[in-house]
Amino acid sequence: MSDLKARLGAATAAAMRARQRERVKALRLVNAAVKQTEIDGRRQLGDDDVVAVLVRMNKQRRDSLAQFEKAGREDLAAIERFEIAVIEEFLPEPLSQADIESAVAAAMETTGAATMRDMGKVMGALRSELAGRADMGAVSRLVRAALG
Q1: Is 37:45 a contact under the CB 8 Å cutoff?
Q2: Predicted TM-score of the model (pTM)
Q3: How many helices (H) and strands (E) does the chain have?
Q4: Domain range summary for the chain, segments of one domain joined by +
Q5: pLDDT of 20-50, one tens digit each?
Q6: Which CATH class is domain 97-147?
Q7: Do 130 and 100 form a contact (C-beta atoms < 8 A)?
Q8: Mean pLDDT estimate for the chain
Q9: Which tens digit of pLDDT belongs to each residue from 108-141?
Q10: Is the distance from CB of 83 to CB of 64 less than 8 angstroms?
């Protein structure tokens, strides 16, 4: 069992003992998504795979939050904000802008990227290195600006 899955299980049990209903609900959503991914892939997930699930869930919650705020549904937006906060507790520490820029520069040098045609190579190199620690959309914009 991965360390991150064990932490999720322990956090769920602690929230249940503390009778924190909303936190238990959010953690059960995370555990269910991890379990579903394991069942779909017919394999045990490692920490990197669990981080990928958390990143996907976080992105979904952020998209929903934007839509709820646009529609003026503050009650639903508050729930999404809480779930985002719970999910982010288990994500790795985010990188600073300077760290992201240096990683992009290093990946461009490593892959020998010079034109926009090489963007896929650079993003492929960065995806595993920055997964869960940086917004890949922002990284993509940085790569595009550097290559353009």
Answers
A1: yes
A2: 0.83
A3: 7, 0
A4: 3-88, 97-147
A5: 999 999 999 999 999 999 999 999 999 989 9
A6: mainly alpha
A7: yes
A8: 94
A9: 999 998 889 999 999 999 988 887 888 888 899 9
A10: no
**The domain 3-88 belongs to what CATH superfamily?**
Uncharacterised protein YqeY/AIM41, N-terminal domain (1.10.1510.10)
DSSP secondary structure letter of residue 35: H
State residue 1's pLDDT score: 74
Among residues 38, 39, 26, 37, the alpha carbon closest in space to that of 90 is found at 26
- Asked if 129 and 107 touch (Cβ cutoff 8 Å), the reply is yes
DSSP letter for each residue of 57-124: HHHHHHHHHHHHHHHT-HHHHHHHHHHHHHHHTTSPPPPPHHHHHHHHHHHHHHHT--SGGGHHHHHH
Residue 135 DSSP SS3: coil
- Per DSSP, 42 falls in state T
Do domains 3-88 and 97-147 share one topology? The answer is no
Those residues with Cβ within 8 angstroms of residue 145's Cβ, 6 or more apart along the chain or in another chain: none
What is the rounded CA–CA span in Å between residue 144 and residue 125?
14
Task: Let me know: does 106 contact 122? Beta carbons within 8 Å.
Answer: no
